[in-house]
TrEMBL record:
Protein name per Swiss-Prot or TrEMBL: Transcriptional regulator
Any single biological process term in GO: regulation of DNA-templated transcription
Keywords, in A-Z order: Carbohydrate metabolism, DNA-binding, Transcription, Transcription regulation
Family matches, as Pfam families: ROK (PF00480)
Keyword DNA-binding in record: yes
Similarity section: Belongs to the ROK (NagC/XylR) family.
């Protein structure tokens, strides 16, 4: 019997989260419709909605209920504008701070330099920038609900701990606990790619999918995996690793010390430097005409440039092999590609797809769909997902209702 009150609290929290999620996704929505979709009794819906309305997290609104002879009806929608949260994206050399309301709408975002060598400690640099940011935008600040941090580092999200971030020489840093003590706010910490994958699964290209793999091809090559609705982690690490799987036996030396890692083949910088090397033998390639960037590379692919197409096909094959293995391991519904190379997806995707069909179990490969991510990994967008997740599971809502 001891565990019962906790159990009831947990059910209550889950139900509040579920109702909030449905209002977010379908609002304005009537209480009757909400009761059907949530599979909760009308009396429970009335109670939960009253609490959400009293806390100003949900509001009533008149809307045209088309199913009810086109008459105006009373519906529910989120009341997001008076609640803000801070997004913090820690990059290599820069820090992006963004203020958003609970609907995720961006209020203001600043990109600030965050040099690796600084007289102040890493934590002091971050907290000083956050203080200055709040100082600058005090006039548009509403009630703060949370801080959400994303970083491309080995992190422990449950402990709010950055385990290893070599660029800033940071190890075992309890940034979550430190900021929580300083502000009293819940602090979320997540690896950037994992946060992005969660965003795609909650409200992006993989909405309503329980099993997804997201391949990120950027400066770094990475992967996010959600299976049975759960984010997979590599042991205590926050992200699974594909960038450092060997794909060329005697390939280029990688930053990790090994030879021929996938990242040395498909990382954007490596793609561009390979293209530059090969240009010498193909003087009439379109790649010669412009400053070589990922955008001009994709344009050359799309215009049918043979060299550019050969390079992107080669990348497609190497990525495809790894994806095929992952399809066999995880049997996902969707594979998302998040990359600036999506500008040439009509060339890249068929190559990856062919690899999957050729190398993965047909029963798995036949039903998997390869699609582009809905979002680009820009600004503080991926940091939104931790807050959405905590709203949808009810934990953050219960926190806000306590006041
Ligand atoms: Zn490597």
């Amino acid at each position: 019997m001891d565990g019962q009150p906790g159990h009831i609290d947990q059910i209550k929290q889950t139900n509040i989260g579920a109702v909030y999620r449905l209002i977010d996704q379908y609002g304005p929505i009537s209480r009757i419709e909400l009761s059907k979709k949530a599979q909760l009794a009308p009396a429970s819906i009335t109670k939960i909605v009253r609490e959400l309305v009293d806390t100003h997290l949900v509001m009533e609104t008149e809307f045209l209920d088309l199913g009810f002879r086109g008459r105006p009806a009373t519906g529910l929608k989120l009341d997001s504008e008076s609640w803000h949260f801070l997004c913090v994206s820690i990059g290599l050399g820069n820090l992006i701070l963004g203020l958003r309301d609970l609907s995720s709408k961006l209020i203001v975002e600043d990109v600030l330099p965050l040099p690796a060598s600084n007289k102040k400690s890493f934590l002091d640099c971050i907290t000083d920038e956050i203080d200055a940011f709040f100082g600058r935008y005090q006039s548009c600040l509403e009630r703060l609900t949370a801080i959400s941090i994303t970083v491309n580092a080995i992190v422990d999200p449950t402990k709010g701990l950055i385990r290893n971030l070599p660029y800033y020489q940071v190890q075992e840093l309890s940034i979550g606990e430190y900021l929580h003590r300083r502000t009293g706010l819940p602090v979320f910490l997540q690896h950037e790619i994992t946060a992005w994958t969660i965003a795609e699964s909650l409200y992006g290209a993989a909405k309503n999918c329980k099993n997804i793999i997201q391949i990120v091809i950027d400066e770094n090559v990475g992967v996010g995996v959600i299976i049975a609705g759960q984010t997979l982690h590599a042991g205590n690490g926050s992200v699974m690793e594909i960038g450092h799987i060997q794909v060329e036996l005697d390939g280029e030396r990688c930053d990790c010390g090994n030879l021929g890692c996938l990242e040395t083949v498909a990382g954007i910088n490596h793609i561009l430097s390979r293209a530059k090397q090969q240009l010498i033998t193909v003087p009439d390639s379109l790649l010669n005409c412009e400053p070589l960037t990922v955008e001009s590379f994709c344009q050359a692919v799309n215009k049918g440039d043979t060299l550019a197409i050969d390079i992107i096909r080669y990348i497609g094959v190497k990525i495809g092999h790894i994806v095929a293995i992952m399809v066999n391991l995880f049997n996902p519904e969707k594979i998302l590609i998040g990359s600036p190379l999506n500008a040439s997806q009509q060339i890249l995707y068929p190559v990856i797809n062919e690899c999957i069909q050729r190398h993965a179990l047909p029963a798995y490969s036949e039903q998997v769909k390869l699609v582009a991510t809905e979002f680009n990994n820009s600004g503080t967008l991926s940091a939104v997902s931790s807050v959405k997740k905590a709203l949808y599971d009810g934990s953050l809502l219960v926190n806000l209702m306590k006041g």
